[in-house]
Protein backbone atom coordinates (compact mmCIF):
# COMPACT_ATOMS: atom_id res chain seq x y z
CA UNK A 1 0.00 0.00 0.00
CA UNK A 2 2.85 2.36 0.91
CA UNK A 3 4.52 1.64 -2.44
CA UNK A 4 1.20 2.42 -4.20
CA UNK A 5 0.94 5.81 -2.44
CA UNK A 6 4.48 6.68 -3.41
CA UNK A 7 3.73 5.73 -7.00
CA UNK A 8 0.63 7.92 -7.04
CA UNK A 9 2.55 10.87 -5.62
CA UNK A 10 5.27 10.40 -8.19
CA UNK A 11 2.65 10.29 -10.96
CA UNK A 12 1.06 13.56 -9.81
CA UNK A 13 4.47 15.18 -9.44
CA UNK A 14 5.47 14.14 -12.93
CA UNK A 15 2.23 15.62 -14.31
CA UNK A 16 2.80 18.92 -12.57
CA UNK A 17 6.47 19.03 -13.55
CA UNK A 18 5.35 19.21 -17.14
CA UNK A 19 3.64 22.51 -16.35
CA UNK A 20 6.10 24.20 -14.01
CA UNK A 21 9.83 24.50 -13.68
CA UNK A 22 11.67 22.45 -11.11
CA UNK A 23 10.95 23.49 -7.54
CA UNK A 24 12.23 22.33 -4.20
CA UNK A 25 10.89 19.11 -2.70
CA UNK A 26 8.93 20.78 0.15
CA UNK A 27 7.07 23.05 -2.27
CA UNK A 28 6.26 20.09 -4.52
CA UNK A 29 4.99 18.24 -1.49
CA UNK A 30 2.63 21.07 -0.48
CA UNK A 31 1.49 21.55 -4.06
CA UNK A 32 1.02 17.81 -4.61
CA UNK A 33 -0.90 17.58 -1.35
CA UNK A 34 -3.13 20.51 -2.29
CA UNK A 35 -3.88 19.09 -5.75
CA UNK A 36 -4.63 15.65 -4.29
CA UNK A 37 -6.98 17.10 -1.64
CA UNK A 38 -8.71 19.25 -4.27
CA UNK A 39 -9.33 16.25 -6.53
CA UNK A 40 -10.66 14.34 -3.53
CA UNK A 41 -13.03 17.28 -2.88
CA UNK A 42 -11.47 17.94 0.52
CA UNK A 43 -11.52 21.66 -0.12
CA UNK A 44 -10.62 22.88 3.38
CA UNK A 45 -7.48 20.74 3.42
CA UNK A 46 -6.69 21.73 -0.17
CA UNK A 47 -7.05 25.42 0.73
CA UNK A 48 -4.55 25.16 3.58
CA UNK A 49 -1.99 23.21 1.53
CA UNK A 50 -2.26 25.42 -1.56
CA UNK A 51 -1.99 28.64 0.46
CA UNK A 52 1.17 27.18 1.95
CA UNK A 53 2.46 26.34 -1.53
CA UNK A 54 1.80 29.91 -2.69
CA UNK A 55 3.56 31.35 0.35
CA UNK A 56 6.58 29.13 -0.26
CA UNK A 57 6.75 29.93 -3.96
CA UNK A 58 4.73 33.02 -5.04
CA UNK A 59 5.98 32.47 -8.61
CA UNK A 60 4.17 29.13 -8.99
CA UNK A 61 1.43 29.55 -11.59
CA UNK A 62 0.09 26.03 -10.98
CA UNK A 63 -0.31 26.72 -7.25
CA UNK A 64 -2.18 29.92 -8.11
CA UNK A 65 -4.41 28.04 -10.55
CA UNK A 66 -5.38 25.29 -8.12
CA UNK A 67 -5.86 27.77 -5.29
CA UNK A 68 -8.19 29.68 -7.60
CA UNK A 69 -10.16 26.49 -8.28
CA UNK A 70 -10.41 25.83 -4.55
CA UNK A 71 -11.57 29.39 -3.78
CA UNK A 72 -14.17 29.01 -6.52
CA UNK A 73 -15.49 25.82 -4.92
CA UNK A 74 -15.64 27.64 -1.58
CA UNK A 75 -17.72 30.43 -3.13
CA UNK A 76 -15.05 33.11 -2.70
CA UNK A 77 -15.18 34.32 -6.30
CA UNK A 78 -13.22 37.53 -5.80
CA UNK A 79 -10.30 35.62 -4.31
CA UNK A 80 -10.59 33.04 -7.08
CA UNK A 81 -10.40 35.76 -9.72
CA UNK A 82 -7.18 37.12 -8.19
CA UNK A 83 -5.59 33.67 -8.19
CA UNK A 84 -6.59 33.00 -11.81
CA UNK A 85 -5.13 36.37 -12.84
CA UNK A 86 -1.86 35.35 -11.14
CA UNK A 87 -1.95 31.97 -12.90
CA UNK A 88 -2.10 33.81 -16.23
CA UNK A 89 0.49 36.43 -15.30
CA UNK A 90 3.16 34.10 -13.92
CA UNK A 91 5.57 32.06 -16.04
CA UNK A 92 4.68 29.69 -17.52
CA UNK A 93 1.03 30.82 -17.64
CA UNK A 94 -1.74 28.27 -17.09
CA UNK A 95 -3.98 29.00 -20.07
CA UNK A 96 -6.95 27.09 -18.61
CA UNK A 97 -7.13 29.90 -16.05
CA UNK A 98 -8.55 32.25 -18.69
CA UNK A 99 -11.77 30.22 -18.94
CA UNK A 100 -12.01 29.84 -15.16
CA UNK A 101 -11.44 33.58 -14.75
CA UNK A 102 -14.20 34.34 -17.25
CA UNK A 103 -16.61 32.10 -15.34
CA UNK A 104 -16.03 33.70 -11.94
CA UNK A 105 -16.15 37.21 -13.41
CA UNK A 106 -19.49 36.34 -15.03
CA UNK A 107 -20.73 35.07 -11.67
CA UNK A 108 -19.64 38.37 -10.09
CA UNK A 109 -21.60 40.29 -12.75
CA UNK A 110 -18.48 41.74 -14.40
CA UNK A 111 -19.56 40.91 -17.94
CA UNK A 112 -17.13 43.26 -19.73
CA UNK A 113 -14.13 41.72 -17.96
CA UNK A 114 -15.58 38.24 -18.51
CA UNK A 115 -15.75 38.87 -22.27
CA UNK A 116 -12.09 39.94 -22.26
CA UNK A 117 -11.10 36.72 -20.46
CA UNK A 118 -13.19 34.68 -22.91
CA UNK A 119 -11.40 36.37 -25.81
CA UNK A 120 -8.07 35.31 -24.28
CA UNK A 121 -9.40 31.75 -23.88
CA UNK A 122 -10.50 31.69 -27.52
CA UNK A 123 -7.08 32.85 -28.69
CA UNK A 124 -5.45 30.19 -26.51
CA UNK A 125 -7.82 27.52 -27.89
CA UNK A 126 -8.85 26.60 -24.35
CA UNK A 127 -11.78 24.12 -24.33
CA UNK A 128 -13.59 25.75 -27.28
CA UNK A 129 -17.00 24.21 -26.54
CA UNK A 130 -16.99 25.43 -22.92
CA UNK A 131 -15.84 28.88 -24.06
CA UNK A 132 -18.68 29.04 -26.61
CA UNK A 133 -21.25 27.99 -23.99
CA UNK A 134 -20.09 30.57 -21.45
CA UNK A 135 -19.96 33.21 -24.18
CA UNK A 136 -23.63 32.44 -24.86
CA UNK A 137 -24.47 33.05 -21.19
CA UNK A 138 -22.59 36.36 -21.19
CA UNK A 139 -24.28 37.58 -24.38
CA UNK A 140 -27.69 36.53 -23.04
CA UNK A 141 -27.08 38.61 -19.93
CA UNK A 142 -26.25 41.56 -22.20
CA UNK A 143 -29.57 41.01 -24.03
CA UNK A 144 -27.79 40.05 -27.26
CA UNK A 145 -30.26 37.27 -28.04
CA UNK A 146 -29.03 36.52 -31.56
CA UNK A 147 -25.38 36.41 -30.53
CA UNK A 148 -26.18 34.22 -27.52
CA UNK A 149 -28.16 31.73 -29.61
CA UNK A 150 -25.32 31.51 -32.16
CA UNK A 151 -22.82 30.81 -29.36
CA UNK A 152 -25.00 28.10 -27.80
CA UNK A 153 -25.45 26.37 -31.15
CA UNK A 154 -21.69 26.57 -31.77
CA UNK A 155 -21.05 24.97 -28.36
CA UNK A 156 -23.34 22.05 -29.22
CA UNK A 157 -21.63 21.67 -32.61
CA UNK A 158 -18.19 21.54 -30.98
CA UNK A 159 -19.33 19.14 -28.23
CA UNK A 160 -22.56 17.18 -28.90
CA UNK A 161 -22.74 16.20 -25.22
CA UNK A 162 -23.70 19.83 -24.53
CA UNK A 163 -26.75 19.63 -26.81
CA UNK A 164 -29.30 19.30 -24.02
CA UNK A 165 -27.83 22.19 -22.04
CA UNK A 166 -27.64 24.43 -25.10
CA UNK A 167 -31.21 23.65 -26.22
CA UNK A 168 -32.45 24.48 -22.73
CA UNK A 169 -30.62 27.80 -22.69
CA UNK A 170 -31.93 28.63 -26.18
CA UNK A 171 -35.48 27.85 -25.07
CA UNK A 172 -35.17 30.14 -22.05
CA UNK A 173 -33.68 32.80 -24.29
CA UNK A 174 -36.53 32.50 -26.78
CA UNK A 175 -39.12 32.68 -24.01
CA UNK A 176 -37.52 35.84 -22.66
CA UNK A 177 -37.67 37.29 -26.17
CA UNK A 178 -41.38 36.36 -26.34
CA UNK A 179 -40.67 33.69 -28.95
CA UNK A 180 -42.88 31.32 -26.98
CA UNK A 181 -43.76 29.04 -29.90
CA UNK A 182 -40.09 28.59 -30.82
CA UNK A 183 -39.24 28.04 -27.15
CA UNK A 184 -41.71 25.16 -26.98
CA UNK A 185 -40.11 23.58 -30.07
CA UNK A 186 -36.64 23.85 -28.51
CA UNK A 187 -37.86 22.24 -25.28
CA UNK A 188 -39.51 19.39 -27.19
CA UNK A 189 -36.26 18.81 -29.08
CA UNK A 190 -34.39 18.73 -25.77
CA UNK A 191 -36.79 16.15 -24.32
CA UNK A 192 -36.44 13.95 -27.41
CA UNK A 193 -32.63 13.81 -27.02
CA UNK A 194 -32.78 11.94 -23.72
CA UNK A 195 -36.27 11.63 -22.20
CA UNK A 196 -34.94 10.16 -18.95
CA UNK A 197 -32.43 12.91 -18.19
CA UNK A 198 -32.76 15.55 -15.49
CA UNK A 199 -32.60 18.28 -18.15
CA UNK A 200 -35.52 16.66 -19.98
CA UNK A 201 -37.53 16.57 -16.76
CA UNK A 202 -36.95 20.27 -16.22
CA UNK A 203 -37.74 20.96 -19.87
CA UNK A 204 -41.09 19.19 -19.49
CA UNK A 205 -42.00 21.55 -16.66
CA UNK A 206 -41.10 24.60 -18.74
CA UNK A 207 -42.87 23.24 -21.83
CA UNK A 208 -46.02 22.69 -19.76
CA UNK A 209 -45.76 26.23 -18.38
CA UNK A 210 -45.41 27.67 -21.89
CA UNK A 211 -48.39 25.64 -23.09
CA UNK A 212 -50.49 27.01 -20.24
CA UNK A 213 -49.24 30.51 -21.01
CA UNK A 214 -50.33 30.25 -24.64
CA UNK A 215 -53.65 28.57 -23.86
CA UNK A 216 -54.36 30.79 -20.87
CA UNK A 217 -53.39 34.09 -22.48
CA UNK A 218 -56.41 36.34 -22.85
CA UNK A 219 -55.87 38.75 -25.74
CA UNK A 220 -59.09 40.58 -24.93
CA UNK A 221 -59.81 42.46 -21.73
CA UNK A 222 -62.81 44.64 -20.85
CA UNK A 223 -62.65 47.29 -18.11
CA UNK A 224 -65.61 49.34 -16.90
CA UNK A 225 -65.75 52.03 -14.23
CA UNK A 226 -68.18 54.36 -12.48
CA UNK A 227 -66.99 57.53 -10.75
CA UNK A 228 -68.28 60.53 -8.83
CA UNK A 229 -66.75 63.91 -9.79
CA UNK A 230 -66.83 67.20 -7.91
CA UNK A 231 -65.65 70.19 -9.98
CA UNK A 232 -65.42 73.68 -8.46
CA UNK A 233 -64.89 75.48 -11.80
CA UNK A 234 -66.53 73.51 -14.58
CA UNK A 235 -66.38 76.26 -17.20
CA UNK A 236 -62.92 77.53 -16.13
CA UNK A 237 -64.24 80.92 -15.06
CA UNK A 238 -61.56 83.54 -14.42
CA UNK A 239 -60.83 84.21 -10.75
CA UNK A 240 -62.14 87.78 -11.04
CA UNK A 241 -65.19 86.88 -13.14
CA UNK A 242 -68.28 88.92 -12.22
CA UNK A 243 -70.89 86.74 -13.94
CA UNK A 244 -72.24 85.47 -10.63
CA UNK A 245 -75.54 84.40 -12.16
CA UNK A 246 -73.77 81.53 -13.92
CA UNK A 247 -72.77 78.72 -11.52
CA UNK A 248 -69.35 77.16 -11.93
CA UNK A 249 -69.45 74.39 -9.29
CA UNK A 250 -71.15 71.09 -10.02
CA UNK A 251 -71.22 67.35 -9.41
CA UNK A 252 -70.97 64.81 -12.19
CA UNK A 253 -71.22 61.13 -13.00
CA UNK A 254 -68.27 59.79 -14.99
CA UNK A 255 -68.61 56.45 -16.72
CA UNK A 256 -65.70 54.69 -18.40
CA UNK A 257 -65.56 51.67 -20.67
CA UNK A 258 -62.43 50.22 -22.26
CA UNK A 259 -61.55 47.25 -24.43
CA UNK A 260 -57.90 46.17 -24.62
CA UNK A 261 -56.53 43.78 -27.22
CA UNK A 262 -53.03 42.34 -26.82
CA UNK A 263 -52.36 39.20 -28.90
CA UNK A 264 -49.44 36.98 -27.94
CA UNK A 265 -47.06 37.37 -30.88
CA UNK A 266 -43.56 35.98 -31.27
CA UNK A 267 -40.87 38.63 -30.94
CA UNK A 268 -39.66 40.93 -32.26
CA UNK A 269 -43.10 42.08 -33.40
CA UNK A 270 -45.85 43.18 -31.07
CA UNK A 271 -49.13 45.05 -31.20
CA UNK A 272 -51.76 46.34 -28.80
CA UNK A 273 -55.08 48.01 -29.53
CA UNK A 274 -57.60 49.84 -27.38
CA UNK A 275 -61.07 51.33 -27.55
CA UNK A 276 -61.98 53.81 -24.83
CA UNK A 277 -65.27 55.54 -23.99
CA UNK A 278 -65.62 58.24 -21.32
CA UNK A 279 -68.88 60.01 -20.55
CA UNK A 280 -69.18 62.94 -18.11
CA UNK A 281 -72.69 64.05 -17.12
CA UNK A 282 -73.08 67.12 -14.87
CA UNK A 283 -76.01 67.64 -12.54
CA UNK A 284 -76.79 71.24 -13.55
CA UNK A 285 -74.34 72.41 -16.22
CA UNK A 286 -75.52 70.03 -18.90
CA UNK A 287 -74.01 72.27 -21.60
CA UNK A 288 -70.62 70.97 -20.37
CA UNK A 289 -71.50 67.27 -20.69
CA UNK A 290 -68.94 65.41 -22.76
CA UNK A 291 -68.59 62.04 -24.43
CA UNK A 292 -65.20 60.97 -25.79
CA UNK A 293 -64.72 57.95 -28.03
CA UNK A 294 -61.10 56.95 -28.70
CA UNK A 295 -59.36 54.17 -30.59
CA UNK A 296 -55.63 53.46 -30.57
CA UNK A 297 -53.29 50.94 -32.17
CA UNK A 298 -49.65 50.54 -31.10
CA UNK A 299 -47.47 48.31 -33.30
CA UNK A 300 -43.97 47.73 -31.94
CA UNK A 301 -40.66 46.11 -32.80
CA UNK A 302 -38.35 44.84 -30.06
CA UNK A 303 -34.60 45.46 -30.24
CA UNK A 304 -31.66 44.27 -28.21
CA UNK A 305 -31.34 47.71 -26.63
CA UNK A 306 -35.02 48.71 -26.51
CA UNK A 307 -38.05 48.94 -28.77
CA UNK A 308 -39.56 51.07 -31.53
CA UNK A 309 -43.30 51.74 -31.40
CA UNK A 310 -45.77 53.71 -33.49
CA UNK A 311 -48.84 54.73 -31.44
CA UNK A 312 -51.69 55.83 -33.72
CA UNK A 313 -54.92 57.19 -32.23
CA UNK A 314 -58.14 58.99 -33.04
CA UNK A 315 -60.56 60.69 -30.60
CA UNK A 316 -64.03 62.07 -31.29
CA UNK A 317 -65.53 64.48 -28.75
CA UNK A 318 -69.18 65.38 -28.20
CA UNK A 319 -70.02 68.48 -26.15
CA UNK A 320 -73.63 68.80 -24.95
CA UNK A 321 -74.53 65.89 -27.27
CA UNK A 322 -73.26 67.75 -30.33
CA UNK A 323 -70.13 67.20 -32.40
CA UNK A 324 -67.28 69.27 -31.01
CA UNK A 325 -63.80 68.07 -31.96
CA UNK A 326 -61.80 65.32 -33.67
CA UNK A 327 -58.14 64.52 -32.94
CA UNK A 328 -55.94 62.19 -34.98
CA UNK A 329 -52.34 61.61 -33.90
CA UNK A 330 -49.26 59.54 -34.60
CA UNK A 331 -46.32 59.34 -32.22
CA UNK A 332 -43.22 57.37 -33.34
CA UNK A 333 -41.28 56.44 -30.22
CA UNK A 334 -37.87 54.91 -29.50
CA UNK A 335 -37.53 53.33 -26.07
CA UNK A 336 -34.04 52.56 -24.77
CA UNK A 337 -33.15 50.01 -22.10
CA UNK A 338 -30.68 51.56 -19.66
CA UNK A 339 -28.73 50.11 -16.71
CA UNK A 340 -30.63 49.12 -13.55
CA UNK A 341 -33.85 48.58 -15.52
CA UNK A 342 -34.28 52.27 -16.31
CA UNK A 343 -35.88 53.34 -19.59
CA UNK A 344 -35.19 56.34 -21.80
CA UNK A 345 -37.62 57.51 -24.46
CA UNK A 346 -37.43 59.80 -27.49
CA UNK A 347 -40.40 60.62 -29.67
CA UNK A 348 -41.79 62.75 -32.46
CA UNK A 349 -45.48 63.63 -32.67
CA UNK A 350 -48.03 64.87 -35.15
CA UNK A 351 -51.66 65.68 -34.32
CA UNK A 352 -54.42 66.91 -36.59
CA UNK A 353 -57.14 68.81 -34.72
CA UNK A 354 -60.48 69.44 -36.44
CA UNK A 355 -63.06 71.59 -34.66
CA UNK A 356 -66.47 70.34 -35.74
CA UNK A 357 -68.25 73.63 -35.17
CA UNK A 358 -67.85 76.87 -37.06
CA UNK A 359 -65.78 79.51 -35.17
CA UNK A 360 -67.49 82.80 -34.35
CA UNK A 361 -64.44 84.64 -35.75
CA UNK A 362 -61.89 83.49 -38.36
CA UNK A 363 -59.11 84.37 -35.88
CA UNK A 364 -60.64 81.87 -33.40
CA UNK A 365 -60.49 78.90 -35.79
CA UNK A 366 -58.68 76.16 -33.81
CA UNK A 367 -58.30 73.68 -36.68
CA UNK A 368 -54.58 72.90 -36.58
CA UNK A 369 -51.59 70.80 -37.46
CA UNK A 370 -49.67 70.24 -34.23
CA UNK A 371 -46.03 69.12 -34.37
CA UNK A 372 -44.05 67.93 -31.38
CA UNK A 373 -40.94 66.21 -30.05
CA UNK A 374 -39.99 65.04 -26.61
CA UNK A 375 -37.97 62.82 -24.35
CA UNK A 376 -38.53 61.00 -21.10
CA UNK A 377 -36.82 58.97 -18.40
CA UNK A 378 -38.44 56.23 -16.32
CA UNK A 379 -36.81 54.77 -13.21
CA UNK A 380 -38.48 51.76 -11.54
CA UNK A 381 -37.83 51.07 -7.87
CA UNK A 382 -39.11 48.86 -5.07
CA UNK A 383 -38.56 45.64 -7.07
CA UNK A 384 -40.50 47.14 -9.96
CA UNK A 385 -43.58 47.99 -7.89
CA UNK A 386 -42.81 51.72 -7.91
CA UNK A 387 -41.85 54.08 -10.70
CA UNK A 388 -40.60 57.65 -11.09
CA UNK A 389 -40.67 59.54 -14.38
CA UNK A 390 -39.49 62.80 -15.91
CA UNK A 391 -40.63 64.08 -19.30
CA UNK A 392 -40.18 67.14 -21.51
CA UNK A 393 -42.13 67.93 -24.70
CA UNK A 394 -42.03 70.73 -27.23
CA UNK A 395 -45.06 71.50 -29.39
CA UNK A 396 -45.91 73.85 -32.23
CA UNK A 397 -49.65 74.44 -32.66
CA UNK A 398 -50.08 75.76 -36.19
CA UNK A 399 -53.75 76.75 -35.92
CA UNK A 400 -55.74 78.28 -38.77
CA UNK A 401 -56.89 81.14 -36.56
CA UNK A 402 -53.99 83.41 -35.59
CA UNK A 403 -55.26 83.77 -32.01
CA UNK A 404 -54.34 80.10 -31.33
CA UNK A 405 -50.94 79.74 -33.02
CA UNK A 406 -48.43 78.99 -30.25
CA UNK A 407 -45.25 77.24 -29.16
CA UNK A 408 -45.44 75.11 -26.03
CA UNK A 409 -43.01 73.66 -23.53
CA UNK A 410 -44.26 70.96 -21.18
CA UNK A 411 -42.38 69.51 -18.19
CA UNK A 412 -43.88 66.61 -16.29
CA UNK A 413 -42.66 64.84 -13.14
CA UNK A 414 -44.52 61.89 -11.67
CA UNK A 415 -44.31 58.72 -9.68
CA UNK A 416 -46.16 55.68 -8.40
CA UNK A 417 -45.31 54.75 -4.82
CA UNK A 418 -46.39 51.46 -3.22
CA UNK A 419 -47.81 52.11 0.25
CA UNK A 420 -48.84 48.62 1.32
CA UNK A 421 -49.62 45.52 -0.68
CA UNK A 422 -52.32 46.49 -3.19
CA UNK A 423 -52.35 50.21 -2.31
CA UNK A 424 -50.48 52.67 -4.54
CA UNK A 425 -49.99 56.43 -4.24
CA UNK A 426 -49.73 58.46 -7.45
CA UNK A 427 -48.20 61.93 -7.53
CA UNK A 428 -47.81 64.08 -10.62
CA UNK A 429 -46.77 67.63 -11.39
CA UNK A 430 -47.10 69.30 -14.79
CA UNK A 431 -46.00 72.68 -16.14
CA UNK A 432 -47.14 73.83 -19.60
CA UNK A 433 -45.83 77.18 -20.86
CA UNK A 434 -47.39 78.52 -24.06
CA UNK A 435 -46.04 81.40 -26.09
CA UNK A 436 -48.59 82.72 -28.61
CA UNK A 437 -47.08 84.13 -31.78
CA UNK A 438 -49.63 86.75 -32.84
CA UNK A 439 -51.48 89.60 -31.19
CA UNK A 440 -54.89 88.49 -30.01
CA UNK A 441 -57.50 90.22 -32.15
CA UNK A 442 -59.98 90.51 -29.28
CA UNK A 443 -57.64 91.77 -26.53
CA UNK A 444 -54.98 93.56 -28.59
CA UNK A 445 -52.03 91.88 -26.89
CA UNK A 446 -49.87 88.81 -27.41
CA UNK A 447 -51.16 86.10 -25.09
CA UNK A 448 -48.83 84.23 -22.71
CA UNK A 449 -50.07 81.30 -20.60
CA UNK A 450 -48.47 79.06 -18.00
CA UNK A 451 -50.60 76.21 -16.67
CA UNK A 452 -49.60 74.41 -13.47
CA UNK A 453 -51.24 71.09 -12.62
CA UNK A 454 -50.80 68.95 -9.50
CA UNK A 455 -52.39 65.53 -9.09
CA UNK A 456 -52.50 63.18 -6.10
CA UNK A 457 -54.28 59.84 -6.19
CA UNK A 458 -54.70 56.49 -4.47
CA UNK A 459 -55.51 53.16 -6.08
CA UNK A 460 -56.51 50.15 -4.01
CA UNK A 461 -56.48 46.84 -5.86
CA UNK A 462 -59.08 44.86 -3.94
CA UNK A 463 -58.64 41.90 -6.30
CA UNK A 464 -56.71 41.52 -9.56
CA UNK A 465 -59.90 42.57 -11.38
CA UNK A 466 -61.42 45.13 -9.01
CA UNK A 467 -59.99 48.44 -7.78
CA UNK A 468 -61.07 51.58 -5.92
CA UNK A 469 -59.72 54.96 -7.05
CA UNK A 470 -59.44 58.41 -5.53
CA UNK A 471 -57.87 61.45 -7.20
CA UNK A 472 -57.46 65.14 -6.41
CA UNK A 473 -56.49 67.54 -9.20
CA UNK A 474 -55.52 71.21 -8.84
CA UNK A 475 -55.03 73.46 -11.88
CA UNK A 476 -53.73 77.01 -11.88
CA UNK A 477 -53.67 78.79 -15.23
CA UNK A 478 -51.71 82.05 -15.22
CA UNK A 479 -52.31 84.30 -18.23
CA UNK A 480 -51.70 87.92 -19.13
CA UNK A 481 -55.28 87.94 -20.47
CA UNK A 482 -57.81 87.69 -17.66
CA UNK A 483 -60.20 85.59 -19.72
CA UNK A 484 -57.72 82.68 -19.60
CA UNK A 485 -56.56 83.13 -15.98
CA UNK A 486 -58.30 80.72 -13.58
CA UNK A 487 -58.10 78.14 -10.79
CA UNK A 488 -59.79 74.76 -10.78
CA UNK A 489 -60.05 71.85 -8.34
CA UNK A 490 -61.59 68.45 -9.00
CA UNK A 491 -62.12 65.40 -6.81
CA UNK A 492 -62.86 62.03 -8.39
CA UNK A 493 -63.59 58.73 -6.67
CA UNK A 494 -64.95 55.50 -8.07
CA UNK A 495 -64.62 51.81 -8.76
CA UNK A 496 -63.24 49.92 -11.76
CA UNK A 497 -63.73 46.29 -12.71
CA UNK A 498 -61.99 44.18 -15.33
CA UNK A 499 -63.28 41.11 -17.11
UniProtKB/TrEMBL annotation:
Taxonomy, top ranks, is:
Bacteria, Pseudomonadati, Thermodesulfobacteriota, Desulfuromonadia, Geobacterales
- Each TPR repeat occupies one of these ranges, namely 61-94, 129-162
Q: Where does the secretion signal sit in this chain?
A: 1-22
Q: Which domain of life is it from?
A: Bacteria
Annotated organism of origin: Geoanaerobacter pelophilus
Q: Which SMART domains does UniProt cross-reference here? A: TPR
Pfam families tied to this protein: BBP2_2, TPR_16
InterPro entries cross-referenced by the UniProt entry: BBP2_2, OMP/PagP_B-barrel, TPR-like_helical_dom_sf, TPR_rpt
Record keyword Kinase present: no
Name the chain's protein. Answer: Tetratricopeptide repeat protein
Q: Identify the keywords attached in UniProt to this record, alphabetized.
A: Signal, TPR repeat
